[in-house]
Amino acid sequence: MANNSVDDIKPCFPLFGEPEYRENMKNKQDKYEERESMEKLEETFQWTTSAEYKELNFQREAVTINPAKACQPLGAVLCSLGFKGTLPYVHGSQGCVAYFRTYFNRHFKEPVACVSDSMTEDAAVFGGHKNMDAGLKNALALYKPEMIAVSTTCMAEVIGDDLHSFITNAKVKGHVPQDLPVPSAHTPSFVGSHTTGWDGMLEGIIRYFTLDKHESAVVGSNGKINLVPGFETYLGNYRILKRYMEEMDVPYTLLSDPSEVLDTPADGEYRMYVGGTELEDVKDTPNAIDTLLLQPWSLTKTKKYLKDTWQQPISEINPPMGLKWTDEYLMKVSQLSGKPIPASIELERGRLVDMMTDSHSWLHGKRFSLYGDPDFVMGLTNFLLELGAEPVHVMSNNANKRWGKAMSKILKSSPYGQETEVHVGTDLWHFRSLVFDRKPDFMIGNSYGKFIQRDTKHKGLEHEVKLIRLGFPIFDRHHLHRMTTLGYEGAMYILTTLVNAVLEDLDSKTTGYGETDYNYDLVR
Ligand code: SF4
């Protein structure tokens, strides 16, 4: 290429903006694309930003556009990665597994071990029994896992493959040893989402290890508290849950902990398995004092199994996000364990309160629209209200109506939530209409929101809604997955992110030389 040479390598931007490439692109469009004129595209763009279009958009029934959720087996894979020596195994199409792996690669910037038994057309007709036999045998021979955790793609679900009988038969036929743990979960992606899949896989693992043990369990006999994080992609959250328990001197079992395998060092050694919840600890979980479900809106299957079969209270708890809900969480742990909350955690709380006071004048009354998973969005909304910020739109595609009602109740209890709209089951194309219709100061969500920012900016600078990246997936910024959003430490990170976005935005609007720079202040 004429404009790129080994001595002066230019990346895609600005290289493709140069005349040679612009001409190439134009030729391609003119010759091979049935492209509308720019005038027509602009006219359609403007129409899609109107109130009239919003009405039509919300009548949409037959199609979902950019759904703000991923599919069930992706969640099952994340759950499986959090157990020691465990190989996630997906019964179904290879392409689906390639998608899960690349999705996690892009978010965590890490290799992700996961196998598929690669069902193709013949398996779709005759069933995937043979694939499972060969797949389990090969997976064990090649990767030598301590446990193989099996979930399914849509294809296996559509034809109705029965995981339990397939795995039992594979063991009877000697493809894998009888005593190799092979828990499973049916994870049909035409219902639910990645959070449902995580929940189903955990229930499958707990069921596998404890079904014949819960009746002889003595609640509280091991002195532990079980913590269930749910579909959690902030690695700092696993670490803070462990740190709090250790500082409180409370024994615990964290049910799924992929914080090591998704954060391995570059020291020349590839670690396929590292860290994770010990399988012996999983067997012991019915003997704990209690099990706390930290994403209560997403862990319904696990909750049902525990409530129906275990003797523990399964205490209700809100996600430990923000000030009050972290207070409640720590007090619950203290009450259950009989251990006091130590001075070190009190000090951390005090620091958070100090930070909230310091930043209050910048966040008070700032208007945010947010989207994401049900528990994350609820916890974040609750914290926004604690900061005196005003949620404008609160959206979760994979929540249910009961969540919507609970969310509205929380909002109505605060002076800052009186005007908030709650949307359940809607997608990011709906969200785009929402922020054009009632402009917030910022939107909060995963990387996909950047296209909404681009569109709002295209309508005019006064319409631009900047994206603050919190949630999953975050593909276009580095290392944010290592941060913490739970506990006081997590609230500090969220607060720092929000207030600095507000200040960056103010700086960007006050650089007008001799015009707006009267407010381009050194000290904010
Ligand atoms: S939705 Fe179904 S077909 Fe698509 S990636 Fe997920 S499991 Fe595969």
3D architecture notes:
The protein is α/β, with parallel strands linked by helices and 524 residues long. The chain folds into 3 domains: 72-211, Nitrogenase molybdenum iron protein domain (Rossmann fold); 217-337, Nitrogenase molybdenum iron protein domain (Rossmann fold), CATH 3.40.50; 343-498, Nitrogenase molybdenum iron protein domain (Rossmann fold, 3-Layer(aba) Sandwich), CATH 3.40.50.1980. Helix content is 47%, strand content 9%. The protein is built from 21 helices and 11 strands. It has helices at 12-15, 19-32, 38-48, 51-57, 72-81, 94-108, 121-126, 129-143, 154-158, 163-172, 194-210, 235-247, 279-283, 300-309, 322-337, 343-363, 374-386, 401-412, 428-437, 450-459, 487-509, and strands at 86-91, 115-116, 147-152, 225-228, 252-254, 290-293, 367-371, 390-396, 421-424, 442-445, 466-469. The chain has a 5-stranded parallel beta sheet with strand order 9-8-7-10-11, sandwiched between helices. It has a 3-stranded parallel beta sheet with strand order 2-1-3, sandwiched between helices. Strand 8, helix 18 and strand 9 form a beta-alpha-beta unit. Helix 4 (51-57) runs antiparallel to helix 19 (428-437). The protein is globular and about 75 Å long. It starts with 11 loop residues before the first helix and ends in a 15-residue tail after the last helix. Bound molecules: iron/sulfur cluster. Keywords: ATP-binding, Iron, Iron-sulfur, Metal-binding, Nitrogen fixation, Nucleotide-binding, Oxidoreductase. Tetramer of two alpha and two beta chains. Forms complex with the iron protein (nitrogenase component 2).
